[in-house]
Design goal:
The chain is 72% helix and 3% strand. The protein is mainly alpha-helical. Strand 1 and strand 2 form a beta hairpin. The protein is elongated.
Protein backbone atom coordinates (compact mmCIF):
# COMPACT_ATOMS: atom_id res chain seq x y z
CA UNK A 1 0.00 0.00 0.00
CA UNK A 2 1.14 3.51 -0.83
CA UNK A 3 0.30 6.90 0.62
CA UNK A 4 -0.76 9.77 -1.61
CA UNK A 5 2.70 11.29 -1.25
CA UNK A 6 4.43 8.06 -2.26
CA UNK A 7 2.20 7.60 -5.31
CA UNK A 8 2.74 11.23 -6.30
CA UNK A 9 6.51 10.78 -6.09
CA UNK A 10 6.49 7.48 -8.00
CA UNK A 11 4.38 8.97 -10.79
CA UNK A 12 5.99 12.40 -10.81
CA UNK A 13 2.74 14.25 -10.22
CA UNK A 14 1.48 16.44 -7.41
CA UNK A 15 -0.80 15.29 -4.63
CA UNK A 16 -3.15 18.00 -5.88
CA UNK A 17 -3.37 16.14 -9.23
CA UNK A 18 -4.21 12.89 -7.45
CA UNK A 19 -6.90 14.60 -5.38
CA UNK A 20 -8.30 16.15 -8.56
CA UNK A 21 -8.45 12.72 -10.23
CA UNK A 22 -10.25 11.41 -7.17
CA UNK A 23 -12.70 14.34 -7.25
CA UNK A 24 -13.38 13.56 -10.92
CA UNK A 25 -13.88 9.83 -10.09
CA UNK A 26 -10.94 8.81 -12.26
CA UNK A 27 -9.28 7.08 -9.30
CA UNK A 28 -10.92 5.84 -6.14
CA UNK A 29 -8.24 5.04 -3.57
CA UNK A 30 -8.88 2.89 -0.55
CA UNK A 31 -9.01 4.54 2.89
CA UNK A 32 -7.49 3.32 6.13
CA UNK A 33 -9.19 3.46 9.54
CA UNK A 34 -8.08 7.12 9.87
CA UNK A 35 -9.57 8.05 6.48
CA UNK A 36 -6.16 8.44 4.85
CA UNK A 37 -5.87 7.51 1.19
CA UNK A 38 -4.13 4.22 0.44
CA UNK A 39 -3.16 3.17 -3.05
CA UNK A 40 -2.44 -0.37 -4.23
CA UNK A 41 -0.35 -1.64 -7.13
CA UNK A 42 -3.62 -1.77 -9.08
CA UNK A 43 -4.15 1.97 -8.47
CA UNK A 44 -0.56 2.61 -9.55
CA UNK A 45 -1.09 0.69 -12.79
CA UNK A 46 -4.38 2.50 -13.47
CA UNK A 47 -2.87 5.93 -12.81
CA UNK A 48 0.08 5.13 -15.07
CA UNK A 49 -2.42 4.39 -17.85
CA UNK A 50 -4.39 7.57 -17.13
CA UNK A 51 -1.22 9.67 -17.22
CA UNK A 52 -0.24 8.16 -20.58
CA UNK A 53 -3.65 9.08 -21.96
CA UNK A 54 -3.17 12.60 -20.61
CA UNK A 55 0.32 12.85 -22.15
CA UNK A 56 -1.22 12.08 -25.53
CA UNK A 57 -3.67 14.96 -25.12
CA UNK A 58 -6.77 12.92 -24.28
CA UNK A 59 -9.17 15.38 -22.66
CA UNK A 60 -10.17 14.78 -19.05
CA UNK A 61 -13.79 14.41 -20.18
CA UNK A 62 -12.81 11.41 -22.32
CA UNK A 63 -10.66 9.92 -19.55
CA UNK A 64 -13.66 10.27 -17.22
CA UNK A 65 -15.90 8.63 -19.83
CA UNK A 66 -13.45 5.75 -20.27
CA UNK A 67 -13.20 5.33 -16.48
CA UNK A 68 -16.97 5.31 -16.12
CA UNK A 69 -17.30 2.69 -18.85
CA UNK A 70 -14.55 0.60 -17.28
CA UNK A 71 -16.28 0.64 -13.90
CA UNK A 72 -19.55 -0.51 -15.52
CA UNK A 73 -17.86 -3.72 -16.62
CA UNK A 74 -17.53 -6.01 -19.59
CA UNK A 75 -20.77 -4.91 -21.24
CA UNK A 76 -18.98 -1.64 -22.13
CA UNK A 77 -16.04 -3.30 -23.88
CA UNK A 78 -17.09 -2.16 -27.36
CA UNK A 79 -17.62 1.43 -26.23
CA UNK A 80 -14.20 1.46 -24.53
CA UNK A 81 -12.59 0.02 -27.64
CA UNK A 82 -14.21 2.71 -29.80
CA UNK A 83 -13.04 5.45 -27.46
CA UNK A 84 -9.45 4.15 -27.56
CA UNK A 85 -9.51 3.67 -31.34
CA UNK A 86 -10.71 7.25 -31.80
CA UNK A 87 -7.94 8.48 -29.53
CA UNK A 88 -5.38 6.42 -31.43
CA UNK A 89 -6.53 8.17 -34.63
CA UNK A 90 -6.01 11.51 -32.90
CA UNK A 91 -2.48 10.48 -31.91
CA UNK A 92 -1.75 9.49 -35.51
CA UNK A 93 -2.70 13.02 -36.63
CA UNK A 94 -0.46 14.47 -33.90
CA UNK A 95 2.43 12.26 -35.03
CA UNK A 96 2.02 13.33 -38.65
CA UNK A 97 2.01 16.99 -37.62
CA UNK A 98 5.10 16.51 -35.46
CA UNK A 99 6.94 14.71 -38.26
CA UNK A 100 6.13 17.49 -40.73
CA UNK A 101 7.24 20.13 -38.24
CA UNK A 102 10.43 18.21 -37.51
CA UNK A 103 11.31 18.04 -41.22
CA UNK A 104 10.63 21.78 -41.58
CA UNK A 105 12.88 22.54 -38.61
CA UNK A 106 15.65 20.33 -40.01
CA UNK A 107 15.55 22.28 -43.27
CA UNK A 108 15.56 25.63 -41.48
CA UNK A 109 18.45 24.62 -39.20
CA UNK A 110 20.40 23.30 -42.17
CA UNK A 111 19.85 26.56 -44.05
CA UNK A 112 21.09 28.59 -41.06
CA UNK A 113 24.15 26.36 -40.67
CA UNK A 114 24.96 26.69 -44.36
CA UNK A 115 24.52 30.46 -44.19
CA UNK A 116 26.88 30.69 -41.20
CA UNK A 117 29.50 28.36 -42.73
CA UNK A 118 29.56 30.34 -45.98
CA UNK A 119 30.44 33.51 -44.15
CA UNK A 120 27.00 35.03 -44.26
Amino acid sequence: MYTIGEIAQILGVSTHTLRYYEKESIILPDRNENGERRYTDYHLKWLTFVLKLKETQMPITQIKEYTSLFIKGEQTTEARLKLLEDHKSSIEVQLKTLQETYRMLEKKISAYNEFIQNGK
